[in-house]
Amino acid sequence: MALRIVDQAGRTDVGRQRSANEDALVLAPPFYAVADGMGGARAGEVASSLAAGVFEEVRDSGEPPETRLTRIVEEANRRIYDLASTDESHRGMGTTLTAAMVHGGEVSLGHVGDSRAYLLRDGKLEQLTRDHSLVAELERTGQITPEAAEHHPQRSIITRALGPEPSVQVDTYTVGGRDGDVFLICSDGLTSMISDDDVATLLRSGGTLEEVAESLVRAANQSGGKDNITVVLFRLGDGDGGQAPPADETIPGTLKADEVSEAAPAAAELPPDATMVRRPEPRPQPRAQPKGRRRRFGIGVAARVVVGLLFLAGVVAGLYALSRQVYFVATNDGGLVTLYRGVPYELPLGVDLYEQEYASGVPARAIPAARRRAVLDHSWRSREDATDLVRELERGNLDPGGGA
Predict the structure, then answer these.
(1) What pLDDT, on a 0 to 100 scale, did the predictor assign at position 304?
(2) 126: CATH
(3) Averaged over 189-197, what is the pLDDT?
(4) How many other C-beta atoms can be found within 10 angstroms of the C-beta atom of residue 235?
(5) Claim to verify: residue 75 and residue 158 sit in the same structural domain
(6) pLDDT for the residue numbered 319
(7) Is residue 188 in a domain?
(8) 395 and 259 co-located in one domain
(9) Consecutive H or E run containing 5
(10) Percent of the chain with pLDDT over 90
């Protein structure tokens, strides 16, 4: 019997440090997708919504799955680029897009950016897509370790996206499916907050995929929730007792975002032929702690806690003092070359050891790759050296032969 989609779920959340949700998701069997928008003045939200909206118009073309996905991604890129080129308020917007198409016993992927697709098979998690990001390139070339990549302050800089250019290169993959396979598509708001090991643990926890999706979003928020968090999950099976359509069934209709009310059922309960574009959900409020339930510590434990806190305070004070003396060059959330004061590190609980001093008008993507790696290597510099470097880039010295 052909494999079927026997369970599915989608969840998106604004996170704990963003005021708007610029992610979008698609649940439209046999298509699933996540888009993570970027750009100022809510333009990222427009870009991701445009990308998700293309799936509402998909019709069976008879083309191979990878070709269909490529055409979908290229059409999304065209729409975003055209709007950004003609509307000043959307200038510079873009989005990632990672999409899956389930057909027969296989799953094909189309991918641009640093959102990711994973496969959980026999309890083991495998990343199926390759990040199009500066940090991923540094890791692939051996310039930084995987451990350093997880906490690199420029891990959000992507080298490929929909929108900035009139054409885009799309990575495609096809994976043979097995009974019990669970596929995860997610924005980097998940993977930048929790490790792949944590993701695998939660995927193996059992329960419905809706419960797993809730757990993944909760874990990312508990780890800081610095970005929007979006997850899409689907499970393949032999179909016995399943309510979802066959894996190769086409889409007879769609459900637009403005037709999904706040009281809509959970993603796993939506009609299997629906397209659901993300709708930010309210952040849960913390529970009040009942009075009279304070935990009592013995004197020895209290003393150790005090000593530990004093030591931690000394370390933080030393790092802070250092951060006031050095500068480095990186990019801001809009992808512009920016001068920062401090050291490029972040402490737990969202404490940054750096602050923005000056944002230039130079997009990082405008700098040739060889020069970009030298400029954005997080070298500690004096204020004078860092300022001179940014001014040089502003004057148009972007060629690889320029000094960094």
Answers:
(1) 65
(2) 3.60.40.10
(3) 94
(4) 21
(5) yes
(6) 60
(7) yes
(8) no
(9) strand 4-13
(10) 46
Contact 264, 210 (CB under 8 A): no
Q: In the structure, what pLDDT confidence band is assigned to residue 352 with cuts at 50, 70 and 90?
A: confident
The residues near 397 (Cβ < 8 Å, ≥ 6 apart) are none
Which pLDDT score, from 0 to 100, does residue 176 have? 96
- Residues 62, 200 within the same domain: yes
Place of tokens 């010295």: 397
Taking all residues of the chain, what is their mean pLDDT, rounded to a whole number?
Answer: 80
Residues in the chain: 404
**In terms of domains, do 208 and 327 share one?**
no
Residue 363 has pLDDT above 60, yes or no: yes
Reported pTM: 0.64
CA distances in angstroms from 22 to 111, 187, 218, 372, listed in the order given: 18, 10, 18, 27
| Three-state secondary structure call for residue 340 | strand
Collapsing DSSP to helix, strand or coil, 48 comes out as: helix
Considering the domain architecture, whether residues 120 and 31 belong to the same structural domain is answered as yes
Q: With respect to residue 126, please indicate whether it lies within any of the assigned structural domains.
A: yes
Which of 252, 269, 286 terminates a domain? The answer is: 269
Domain count of the chain?
Answer: 2
Strand partners, 293: none
Whole-number pLDDT of residue 254? 32
Asked whether residue 268 carries a pLDDT value surpassing 60, the answer given is no
Pairwise CA distance, residues 313 & 317, whole Å: 6
- Distance, CA of 362 to CA of 84 (rounded, Å): 17
Domain that holds residue 170: 4-269
* Short-list 101, 91, 224, CA closest to 164: 91
CA distance 23 to 252: 25
Determine how many CB atoms are found less than 10 A away from the CB of residue 342. Answer: 21
Q: What residues contact 331, with CB distance under 8 A and at least 6 apart?
A: 154, 157, 337, 338, 364, 376
Q: Which residues fall within 8 angstroms of residue 87, CB to CB, at 6 or more apart? A: none
> Dihedral of CA 124/13/107/112: which sign?
negative
Cis (ω within 30 of 0) for the bond into 30?
yes
Average pLDDT over residues 351-375: 79
Q: Hey, how many other C-beta atoms are within 10 angstroms of the C-beta on 341?
A: 18
Q: Residue 233: inside a domain, yes or no?
A: yes
Together in a domain, 238 and 313 = no
* Assigned domain for 387 exists: yes
